[in-house]
Amino acid sequence: MLEYTWRWFGPKDRITFDEIRQTGATGIVSALHQIPVGEIWNREDILDRKDIIECAGFTWSVAESLPVHEDIKRRTGRYKEFIENYKLSLINLAEFGIHTVCYNFMPILDWSRTNLVYKFNDNSEVTRFDFAKFVAFDLYILRRESAEKSYPREVVQQANIYFNNLTSAEIQDLKNTLLLELPGSGEEYTLDELKAKLKTYEKIDDRQLKSNLFDFLKEIVPVAEKYGIRLAIHPDDPPWSLLGLPRIVSTEEDIGEIIAVMDSPANGFTLCTGSLGAGYLNNVSNIAKKFSHRINFAHLRNVTRDEKLNFNENYLFEGDVDMYDIMQTLVHEMNQRRKKKRSDWQIPVRPDHGNQMLGDIGKENYPGYGLYGRMKSLAEIRGLELGVVRSRQFIIKN
Ligand code: DNO
Description:
Blueprint: E1 3-7, H1 17-23, E2 27-30, H2 43-55, E3 59-64, H3 70-74, H4 79-95, E4 100-104, E5 115-119, E6 125-129, H5 131-142, H6 153-164, H7 168-179, H8 191-199, H9 206-227, E7 230-234, H10 252-261, E8 267-272, H11 273-277, H12 284-290, E9 295-300, E10 302-305, E11 311-314, H13 323-339, E12 348-351, H14 372-397
Parallel strand pairs: 1-2, 1-12, 2-3, 3-4, 4-7, 7-8, 8-9, 9-12
Antiparallel strand pairs: 5-6, 6-11, 10-11
Helix pairs in contact: 4-9, 5-6, 5-7, 12-13, 13-14
The structure holds D-mannose.
């Protein structure tokens, strides 16, 4: 079976270990958020976190994220030192048995949304991305230089109409949402800070960023291989350029290139069905099938998307991603790994963002990381897997 995991943000997380245990998860996905990006995850801090997790009866299954410093992404400044630090962090994690490491290569922004409390008709809440709203932020709140060149004329017009109808409270809300600290980035910006950061990527296009990623992989994959680490790059969320920034882990083609550059089980990806699924042209079932041998971690969640680059998160079985197909692929891949007698055949999976619902409504947590929505998704994931596994056995027997 898949290894059922749960993202726990560390001792400040309001979700308790008892609650996590009751969801059915056995593995914990966690990160040392207190360590500044670029610094080494030292042995003492790793051991402390591991002890807390193990004393509660769980395994620390995945490090998410071991963040990549912007200097590495740009290949400027102290990037050489930060790459050496990254290698040491990997070695330290491996020493304590944490062998799956999730990271991303999204410049500056991690996942982005224009609405963190979009209400469903059942009164639960999810996150949503409206392209015109995002463009309105870029053009009229951030006022990025030459931003209008990034968008087709109709989109600029739409954004203009949209913006002119906003109240000042709505403008403030949009601004806060987009500048907010999100779990992956660990940073919160002012408009000026964000503008200054964006400038540092002015000369870096997709090709350059990809080449910087490949250079990084050429350095870290051999270390990961040697110490039994399975790297799992996380796709861009959403899978397209934002604010003129390059984004390079967005499509089937991108993932194909990334895993081909260092062909090794150490160089894999996180099958994040929601991030990839937000891309109208992404067929997530195909991506999963085609690259199943390099899925080192899975984030399962669904989205409803459209061709105009709008999407909202949805219940696991109610969006545009075919979860049955995805599960077939995961189960098949695990069987293949088992046949090869790989000790790491079990793929860790976690429910990703869940609806804010039931007893979570009104409670504080990172958007998408409440208790009940994720618990519901995890129950559905487990049920789906059991159904897929049993029906395959049934077919073989009969
Ligand atoms: C969002 C998460 C991401 C993810 C990072 C991995 O909820 O899936 O923030 O942790 O992108 O580096």
